[in-house]
Design a protein that fits this description.
Strand content: 5-15%
Largest sheet: 5 strands, antiparallel
Distance between the termini: 98 Å
Number of helices: 7
Structural class: alpha+beta
Radius of gyration: 32 Å
Helix content: 40-55%
């Protein structure tokens, strides 16, 4: 039976071996070797669980010999029993980790590693403008960005995204870009299929959505070329309001009215007889 000194030496040796494994596992020249490593880790996890239980048992059995640094026996017993309880909780967590590791080990056994990777051809995509706010209208999304983060800012601005209608309007008006945020001092934050573009120096914020072009189809003879595309964002007139617009608030599509023109401006033009 190993002595306490031997157990301590074994623990130190195991710790050193794990450090070596952590260093060596940063990269595998042969991915197939990982399967055997996972198997060894599974075995080590079981041994770790057993060691934690056994050390917990010793703390309970030897509690009568426990004192704290001040010589208080009752305090020593409490600490010994607390140690045993925490070690048992750790052992239970190791047990759960072992179960997950075992599932990973089974899945890894189904992998056949090939020397040459499969190269997937990326589908070309561009970015369509969803909303552009500047000045006072940008204050609220900028405040949300500063206080709550980019996820909430994107959620707020996404209220202006009407899906296919927004995409169609952007294509018709040329608000399509190869990359989001091409202006000086633009800061771009990607969130899923959205790109949040912020320029604190100019004071604007905009939201763009990734757009994947459909497969090319035969074009009508009357069509001369593709929809106009701009190389970078412009400081457009805002076509939004501080509160997200409802679908009913949007102006009906007219020859003389732009989709990106604010509803309030369109109403003023209609009142003045400038729009039919």
């Amino acid at each position: 039976m190993p002595t306490f000194f031997d157990s301590t030496a074994d623990a130190a040796e195991a710790s050193e071996a794990l450090r070596g494994l952590a260093h060596a596992s940063r990269e595998f020249d042969q991915p197939a070797e990982m399967y055997g490593v996972i198997g060894d880790l599974s075995s080590g996890m079981r041994s770790l669980r057993q060691a934690l239980d056994q050390i917990a048992d010793v703390h309970e059995r030897k509690a009568a010999h426990a004192f704290n640094d001040a010589g208080n026996h009752e305090a020593g017993v409490r600490d010994a029993l607390t140690t045993a309880e925490e070690l048992r909780q750790a052992a239970n967590l190791v047990d759960q980790a072992y179960d997950r590791l075992a599932k990973g080990f089974i899945a890894a056994g189904r992998i056949g590693w090939h020397s040459d990777p499969v190269v997937k051809e990326e589908v070309p995509s561009r970015w369509v403008s969803v909303v552009f706010l500047q000045g006072e209208e940008a204050d609220r999304p900028l405040r949300i960005l500063g206080e709550l983060g980019h996820v909430d800012a994107v959620d707020y601005l996404a209220q202006w995204d009407y899906g296919d209608e927004t995409t169609r309007a952007a294509l018709e008006n040329g608000y399509v870009y190869d990359e989001p945020g091409q202006g000086t001092n633009d800061r771009v934050v990607l969130s899923g299929d959205y790109a949040l573009v912020v320029n604190p120096h100019v004071g604007y914020v905009s939201l763009l959505r990734r757009y994947t072009e459909p497969e090319a189809e035969p074009q009508d003879a009357e069509q001369v070329g593709p929809a106009p595309v701009q190389g970078g964002p412009e400081l457009l007139d805002s076509y939004s309001s501080p509160g997200a617009p409802k679908r009913a608030d949007l102006p009906a599509a007219k020859r003389d009215a732009s989709w990106f023109e604010p509803a309030k401006i369109t109403a003023v033009k209609q009142a003045r007889g400038l729009v039919l």
